Amino acid sequence: MINRREFVSRACMACLGGGLISAMLSSCQATHYVGGVLEQGGIAVSKSDFTYYKKDKPFTRAFIVVEHDKLEYPIYLYRQSDNEYSALWMKCTHQGSELQASGDHLYCSSHGSEFDKNGAVITGPAEQSLRSFPVSVVDDKILIRLA
Ligand code: FES
What we know:
It is a single chain. The protein is α+β, with helices and mostly antiparallel strands and 147 residues long. It folds into 2 domains: 1-30; 31-145, Rieske [2Fe-2S] iron-sulphur domain (Rieske Iron-sulfur Protein, 3-layer Sandwich), CATH 2.102.10.10. It is built from 1 helix and 15 strands, in the order αβββββββββββββββ. It is globular and about 40 Å long. The structure holds FE2/S2 (inorganic) cluster. Residues 92, 94-95, 97, 108, 110-113, 125-126 line the site of FE2/S2 (inorganic) cluster (FES).
């Protein structure tokens, strides 16, 4: 049998734990993969690919990962603002492993290199920045220029 003080203490810890877990889950966003459309000059996605809904409320993803059968590696597309995006080749500059995206940075599971959302090296052994592509935005279309 527990006394009142112990009961309140345990209940508070349970609430804090539940709240913490809930907050962690809501801030933990799964990587969203989008099949891009090959066009003359590049690969296109839609601005709406950054939108997701939770309880009917729209939210905006910080990034998406663009894939296509013709691409050897996917492209990390980071949303700087509504009309400004950065596109990075997800190929590690150390030994060419495919990178994993997590929020505003990319990580290589082979030897631990990390890159920021602009492709700069945060942690080696990689020494060179990631390849980036110019991006243009027209209305709802985002075009990643592959040239
Ligand atoms: S291949 Fe990425 S750190 Fe070595």
